[in-house]
Amino acid sequence: MSPATGVITAVTGGAESERHAGTLRVLAIEDNLGDARLVRAMLAEAAPGAVVVDHAPRLTTGMPGLLDGRYDCVLLDLSLPDADGLDGLAQIRAVAIDLPVVVLSGGTDEQLAMQAVQEGAQDYLIKGQVDGRLLYRSVAYAIERKRAEVQLAHQALHDQLTSLPNRALFYDRLGQGLARLKRRKSALAVIFCDLDRFKVINDSLGHGAGDRLLVAVAARLSGVLRAGDTAARFGGDEFVILCEDITGEQQAIEIAERLSEALRAPFDLGDDEAFVQTSVGIALADGCEARPEALIRDADAAMYRAKERGGGTYEVFDDAMRARAVHRQQVEHALHRAIDRGEIEVHYQPQMRMTTGSLCGVEALVRWRHPEHGLLMPDAFIPAAEETGIIHALGLHVLEVACRQAAAWQSAQPATSVQMSVNLSPRQCQHPDLVPTVADVLRRTGADPALLCLEVTETAVTEDLDVMGGVLAALKSLGLTLAIDDFGTGYASLRALQRLPFDVVKIDRSFVTDLHRSDQEAAIVAAVISLAHALGKRTVAEGVEVIAQVERLRSLGCDVGQGFYYARPCPAGELGYGL
Ligand code: C2E
Ligand code: MG
Ligand code: MG
């Protein structure tokens, strides 16, 4: 007996007290010395040399040994002088939640023993109804069962790929952190990290390499955090970090910089090397009643801002961003209602053949007839719609109205074919359901696909030409036409123009404005027109306002003109042209 702890150690069947690999170490907490001896003797007989049994006659004498994880299992008597009934079990679980427990009860307490299993014990045995084999099996079973329980709990709360905590566990820890914050003077930070261009790496190097990269990123992020911090993976390439006990914004920024720095060195992915850059959003809470969802949303919004600035940087969520977020939410809500209440209108602007001056098409342009603010132009609400994602609902609505209109004109005037152009926003182009959605609208409205042209703004042309090309090809397979809009304002390469299946190039208004006054502008427009023609594409000039521009465009061979010189956008009923 060691006087310090009051715990008596013996190996079954032998006198050594060391723990061997493969040997189980069991603590019997049992006030009846005879029962304790019996336990030891039974285990010695059933599994000679396989189990070390320590004995503690009281819960208090056993407790210290439970803290350092030296035991594989506890045999717990349910009637101890210092812990009666389920109380002992609760105390053990409070200090060693993952330790398997087998309870021992008298024959009259079977009910209580079963209750103990409900409260977290792995098994129970009735004294006097136990032999060595049964006891040994029960201990082994309890250990195995506990292991499976721990593993299941881990799986439910961790990301399988990286083993980092998942969203559920992160929310839980954040909730606890916020509760603790009320009692402390420090601050807490949620740091949202999203890898830039991960999709490109994933698509070009393959998903296996993408997975290896995510695992390596997780390891580097965890490596720079302090012991109490939590790094979680929310899915995809989103990592979220919780830092408690920080002094404030400056320290959060330092942590964000450390995280970015850790990802700077190249990643070795076997055959390939990858460079990773990350956009980071920071949200802070310092004592007030922040809610976990709100804090994560704020960090996400800040991350989004960092991305908008080109990535590879961080942003701290501040009041201006909060105001913007609130504004966005209001616009989103208002737009939802506007669609439902029929406040969204579509106006049409004619497009004319330059050679003959006859009508060949119209562009559908969205308008919001706001009950208080009057007729709103797209610039007032499209950016917010794009940011919030309600652009999908809005764009679908415009597409439906325009297709219905095209079908109506065609059935009224089968001889004249007027092409209907509809704008697609960048976010719509990225939606996985874009192609089936468009197909569905065509089917439902009965519009002729040959009369539909979808305009994709140049800035939506991504670096990944394969992905973009796939989407555009799928759209074209529906039988419609594609235009690249606002050409010249983005950075689409000549390669993009050659590789992507656009039929029409719309020359941005900014080049047309000074076309008739500036030889340089005229040279650019001439170059775009001949390039487009060389690639077999038609050209439409936007923003034609005066006759001098018309003449210049005509001499440069531009196919179609659109602008106030011909007509302003207006409701379908006011168009004229015999429609
Ligand atoms: P956009 O696609 O380049 O459309 C042409 C814009 O130029 C329209 O502005 C039109 O009214 C304007 N415009 C046409 N001719 C002239 C002219 O001679 N002079 C001047 N100064 N402007 C002219 P609007 O209707 O305000 O639309 C602005 C932008 O909003 C559009 O540019 C388009 O990118 C976007 N948009 C409009 N409707 C939709 C829609 O239904 N969905 C999406 N995603 N975007 C839309
Ligand atoms: Mg357009
Ligand atoms: Mg345009």
Describe this structure as you would to a colleague:
It contains 20 helices and 24 strands. Strands 16-17-19-20-21-22-23-24 form an eight-stranded mixed barrel. It has a six-stranded mixed β-sheet with strand order 1-3-2-4-7-8, sandwiched between helices. Strands 10-11-9-14-15 form a five-stranded mixed β-sheet, with helices on both faces. The chain has three domains: 8-156, Response regulator (Rossmann fold), CATH 3.40.50.2300; 167-317, Alpha-Beta Plaits; 342-574, TIM Barrel (Alpha-Beta Barrel). Strand 23, helix 20 (547-556) and strand 24 form a beta-alpha-beta unit. It is of the alpha/beta class and 579 residues long. The radius of gyration is 35 Å and the shape is elongated. Ligand C2E binds at residues 349, 365-366, 377-379, 382, 395, 398, 423, 425, 455, 457, 485-486, 509, 542-545, 562-564, 569.
- Reading side by side through the largest sheet, how are the strands ordered? 16-17-19-20-21-22-23-24
The DSSP helix count reads 20
Uncertain ranges: 1-5, 13-20
In whole angstroms, the N-to-C terminal distance is 104 Å
Please state the structural category. alpha/beta
Largest sheet: 8 strands, mixed, barrel
How many individual β-strands? Answer: 24
Give the overall silhouette: elongated
Q: Radius of gyration, rounded?
A: 35 Å
Q: Beta-strand percentage?
A: 15-25%
The set of bound ligands, ions and cofactors reads: ligand C2E, magnesium ion
CATH level 4 superfamily of the largest domain: EAL domain
